[in-house]
């Protein structure tokens, strides 16, 4: 009966709004038709609002990692010195991609769960004035930390290096004004805050970044961003676009435009606070501080009960998925996603079910305490977040 009642509270992929699902069921049209060309060019234009940029936003078929790789291979030539800011699994991914393209990789590290220290970035850049690009993660999804990109950008701007930001699990949920903050490349994906299925990646580049792309020696073909920019001017793509996902994107942009970025950011802060206060009320440890926490995902841990048993109980009883830990945090922490198509009602449900799961997994739990804390946060939130 309830097989199709899927409660997906992992930090991506995330649930789809029904409007978006319906839009993606439209018949496929030829991607060189005038009608599709119009839809493509308009959605690309409207994405500028989400990126808070005047620059072109490029749309590629591929997962978020494809976008990260595109950023690397368009900017990095073999032997170039780059700096990767690394505080978790996705920071490490940037290190691996840069190494795969022959870069000479320096790292500024933060312990998993801590934010990157901008002063350390400044000091490293002062010591290595030949760094060509700095790679940073906005929300480090593996830990739930939101790294201080604005402060980092200020330090990088004082140098000749480009700043490339992985915003896959934050853009569209957390304020990241690309132009205002002087970010050179921002990369995101479809399946996190942007409420689409996996399969699209989006990139925007500053003028400075385009100059570097033009002079970069690394061989590239599908990921050559110059081809996407050129074809965008002709209102099309160099290769067959993911037509159905673009139907969905058109609908997603309507939802984002109707709610407005300020209210979207505020809603995610509310969801974050409801979740964090509930976790505290249940006397579970939070993995990050309030100051460092991302509005899109909350990490809980390290717990003294079997986290995998809890996740299994939630899946079995309610078809509710929460994420486990990655790498050395596997079995240690769990992560609750609250981004994209997620409302206060969803968080209240998740917390209520979490309490049942904790009980079933044999963890000490005072039933109702987390729900009550989340309700209190909701009721005292300064601006009503309604279901409209
Ligand atoms: C999800 C995610 C990615 C992209 O992963 P894919 O599986 O390739 O879509 C990249 N960076 C961060 C921070 C993410 O959360």
Layout of secondary structure:
Elements: E1 7-8, H1 18-24, H2 34-51, E2 57-61, H3 64-75, E3 81-86, H4 89-100, E4 104-109, H5 118-127, E5 133-137, E6 139-140, E7 145-146, H6 149-157, E8 162-166, H7 178-181, E9 185-189, E10 200-205, H8 207-215, H9 225-233, H10 243-259, H11 261-281, E11 297-300, H12 307-318, E12 320-321, E13 323-324, E14 334-337, H13 344-360, H14 369-380
Parallel strand pairs: 1-12, 3-4, 3-5, 5-8, 8-9
Antiparallel strand pairs: 2-10, 6-7, 9-10, 11-14, 13-14
Residues 12, 63-65, 90, 137, 139, 141, 166, 168-169, 189, 192, 198 line the site of pyridoxal-5'-phosphate.
Structure notes:
By secondary structure, the protein is an alpha/beta fold. The chain folds into two domains: 7-13 and 260-387, Aspartate Aminotransferase, domain 1, CATH 3.90.1150.10; 18-258, Aspartate Aminotransferase, domain 2 (3-Layer(aba) Sandwich), CATH 3.40.640.10. The protein has 14 helices and 14 strands. It has helices at 18-24, 34-51, 64-75, 89-100, 118-127, 149-157, 178-181, 207-215, 225-233, 243-259, 261-281, 307-318, 344-360, 369-380, and strands spanning 7-8, 57-61, 81-86, 104-109, 133-137, 139-140, 145-146, 162-166, 185-189, 200-205, 297-300, 320-321, 323-324, 334-337. The strands form four sheets. It has a seven-stranded mixed β-sheet with strand order 2-10-9-8-5-3-4, with helices on both faces. A hairpin with a 4-residue loop joins strand 6 (139-140) and strand 7 (145-146). It starts with 6 loop residues before the first strand and ends in an 8-residue tail after the last helix. The model has no long low-confidence stretch (mean pLDDT 97). Bound molecules: pyridoxal-5'-phosphate. The site of pyridoxal-5'-phosphate (PLP) has 14 residues, from helix 3.
């Amino acid at each position: 009966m309830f097989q199709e009642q899927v409660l997906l509270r992992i930090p991506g992929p995330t649930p789809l709004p029904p409007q978006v699902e319906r839009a993606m069921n439209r018949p496929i049209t030829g991607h060189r038709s005038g009608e599709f060309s119009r839809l493509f060019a308009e959605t690309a234009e409207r994405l500028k609002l989400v990126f808070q940029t005047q620059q072109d936003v490029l749309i590629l078929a591929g997962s978020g990692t494809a976008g990260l790789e595109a950023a690397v291979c368009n900017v990095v030539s073999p032997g170039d010195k780059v700096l990767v800011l690394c505080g978790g699994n996705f920071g490490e991914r940037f290190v691996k991609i840069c190494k795969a393209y022959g870069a000479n990789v320096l790292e500024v590290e933060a312990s998993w769960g801590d934010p990157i220290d901008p002063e350390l970035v400044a000091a490293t850049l002062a010591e290595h004035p030949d760094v060509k690009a700095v790679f940073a993660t906005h929300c480090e999804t593996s830990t739930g930390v939101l790294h201080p990109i604005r402060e980092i950008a200020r330090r990088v701007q004082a140098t000749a290096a480009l700043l490339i930001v992985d915003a896959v699990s934050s853009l569209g949920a957390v304020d990241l004004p690309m132009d205002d903050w002087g970010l050179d490349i921002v990369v995101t994906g479809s399946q996190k805050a942007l409420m689409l299925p996996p399969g699209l990646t989006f990139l925007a580049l500053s003028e400075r970044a385009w100059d570097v792309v033009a002079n970069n020696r690394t061989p590239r073909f599908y990921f050559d961003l110059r081809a996407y920019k050129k074809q965008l001017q002709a209102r099309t793509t160099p290769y067959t676009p993911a037509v159905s996902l673009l139907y969905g994107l058109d609908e997603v942009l309507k939802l984002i435009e109707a709610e407005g970025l300020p209210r979207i950011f505020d809603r995610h802060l509310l969801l974050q606070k409801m979740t964090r206060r509930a976790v505290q009320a249940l006397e579970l440890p939070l993995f990050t501080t309030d100051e460092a926490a991302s509005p899109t995902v909350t990490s809980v841990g390290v717990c003294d009960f079997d986290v995998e048993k809890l996740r299994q109980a939630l899946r079995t009883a309610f078809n509710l998925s929460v994420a486990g830990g990655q790498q050395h945090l596997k079995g240690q922490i769990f992560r609750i996603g609250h981004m994209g198509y997620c409302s206060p009602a969803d968080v209240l449900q998740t917390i209520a079910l979490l309490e049942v799961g904790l009980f079933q997994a044999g963890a000490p739990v005072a039933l109702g305490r987390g729900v009550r804390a989340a309700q209190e946060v909701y009721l005292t939130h300064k601006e009503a977040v309604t279901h409209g």
